[in-house]
Design brief:
The protein is of the alpha+beta class and 268 residues long. 49% of the residues lie in helices and 15% in strands. It has a single domain, classed as Cytochrome Bc1 Complex, Chain D, domain 2 (Orthogonal Bundle). Helix 3 packs across helix 10 and helix 8 runs antiparallel to helix 10. It is extended. The N terminus is likely disordered.
Length: 268
């Protein structure tokens, strides 16, 4: 419902063309990566973030509000700015995204009280406004895809990308539950003796989620894409304007060369 209503908003022709081309390229890369990658190669997984893919950003905003906003804020982003950049009508913004009691002009703030968060998780969940710029989109993608069941942890979950993470696996209803499977590899220790080392090999699914693996990959991609946009909301506009700036400079340089040639044509 959200995406269908938002798609009625028109984007500038140039930005739309760039978005479609980049989205097609990103989808091709993602499919190629899925076909060749494995769980053991999780550190090579890439997010293929594309902040010009407005449909993906809209889905990411929806999913962030549904699964992340309960704990994490975006204190440098206003709801009204998000709605403007992502072509979201204000009525739809208020109905489907903004928590009750909040105003469109307000910042995107989690309702969780920091003192309660410290009591429950040991620390307050971080603000995610700049997380994509600080840690990178690939890290966020890997983080959201490498949660696993760990009964030794208070939250019942652990993470390959961020071991001992205090964050519960809130996306397990979507992805399902999985456990890591390790393999023994013989390595040489500091003293030159052979030792057996346990190396991560793959995940084993022990309970299904509501989404297929492909749907969950898209979900993670959209959320990471949205966080990438939040870290630099002006990037898409800046990139679109950059094309025209380069064209202007080329045209101006050509005109300057013609003018120089005219002035100096009689100089020997």
């Amino acid at each position: 419902m959200l995406i269908s209503a938002l798609s009625k908003k028109r984007m500038p022709a140039l930005l739309l063309a760039v978005a479609l081309a980049a989205a097609a390229t990103g989808a091709t890369r993602a499919r190629a990566a899925d076909e060749t990658s494995s769980d053991a190669d999780w550190q090579s997984w890439t997010a293929n973030a594309n902040v010009t893919d407005v449909a993906s950003l809209q889905r990411g905003a929806r999913d962030f509000a549904g699964y992340c906003l309960g704990c994490h804020s975006l204190e440098y982003e206003r709801w009204s700015r998000l709605a403007k950049d992502l072509s979201i009508p204000e009525a739809l913004l208020v109905k489907d995204l903004i928590p009750p009691g909040e105003k469109p002009t307000g910042y995107i703030i989690s309702p969780m009280i920091p003192a309660d968060a410290e009591k429950w998780f040991g620390k307050a969940p971080p603000d995610l406004s700049l997380i994509a710029r600080a840690r990178g989109t690939d890290y966020l993608y890997q983080y959201l895809k490498t949660f696993y069941v760990d009964s030794s942890r208070a939250t019942g979950a652990n993470n390959l990308a961020f071991p001992q993470s205090a964050m519960p696996d809130v996306v397990s209803p979507l992805e399902g539950l999985k456990v890591p499977v390790y393999k023994s590899v013989e390595t040489e220790g500091p003293d030159g003796k052979k030792v057996q080392e346990q190396i991560f090999d793959h995940f084993k699914q022990i309970a299904p989620g509501r989404m297929t693996p492909q749907q969950y990959d898209q979900f993670v991609h959209d959320v990471v894409n949205f966080l990438d946009y939040v870290g630099d909301p002006q990037r898409a506009l800046r990139q679109a304007m950059g094309i025209w700036v380069i064209l202007f400079l080329l045209a101006f340089s050509w005109l300057a060369w013609l003018l120089k040639r005219e002035f100096w044509k009689d100089v020997k």
